[in-house]
Amino acid sequence: MKKITLSLTLLSIWFLSMAQPTDTLKVLFVGNSYTYFNNLPHLVSVISDSTKTKLITKKTVIGGSWLYQHWNGLRGLKTKEIIEQGDFDAVVLQEYSMGAIDYPDSLRKYVPLFADLIRSTGAKPYLFQVWAREKVPQYIQELNQEYEAVARKNDVTLVHVAKGWDMARNLRSSSALFAPDGTHPSALGTFISAAIFVGYLTGEVPEKVSEAPTAFDQSGEFIELLRVDRLDMIFALKVAKETIDTYCE
């Protein structure tokens, strides 16, 4: 009986070790409401619990901000100081939603400035490829091309969130990726985005996670980040896996 108990204990320890991350990465998200809507950075961290790498996420964000505002410390932002002092492994840059269309010189100027700063701290820069707003799908291709050109020119890893959304619509045309305002992501849109980020940052997309991921706030209070149904969770992970397989180099 003692041998059986010992075997079961060792087996339990083995299963637990398989389920727990064995490495960590510190990730900073720089952006605006496209980044903080539906708790994207927190969701990325929670989903990563089902991979071998735990992503410890932090954000520097303010609604409607541009990268030039982050760079110049406007609107109370201290993004450069946070990057310099944060000992991050990765920093994700997110430009104003239609900025690459309205003022493409902003993306072209500030991505290389941030990329140099990020690399000087030993971290790796990533660029969040944002989607076109729901009412202007005609800009999808132009946005994608602009982001791809900037990422390629500056040797920055482009996280193909917009391409992932395109894939979701191709796989299931009824996918509701937008919130009612037609610009911010729905719960499903955020879930897909978060799973894609996890894939790029860890090299893995888990096969299954909770459809109602939870976390604790700074006061230790339990919070539910968002909720999707089980089939949407499965679909989101499938989209993320196919996006990684197709676009991640």
Give a written overview of the molecule.
There is one protein chain. This protein has 249 residues and is an alpha/beta fold. The protein has a single domain (22-247), classed as Rossmann fold. It contains eleven helices and seven strands. It has helices at residues 2-19, 33-36, 40-48, 67-71, 79-85, 99-102, 104-120, 140-153, 161-171, 187-202, 230-247; strands spanning 23-31, 53-61, 90-93, 124-128, 157-159, 214-216, 222-224. Strands 2-1-3-4-5 form a five-stranded parallel sheet, sandwiched between helices. The chain has a two-stranded antiparallel ribbon with strand order 6-7. A hairpin with a 5-residue loop joins strand 6 (214-216) and strand 7. Helix 3 (40-48) crosses helix 10 (187-202) and helix 7 runs parallel beside helix 8 (140-153).
Features:
two-stranded antiparallel sheet; five-stranded parallel beta sheet; single chain; 249 residues; Rossmann fold; alpha/beta
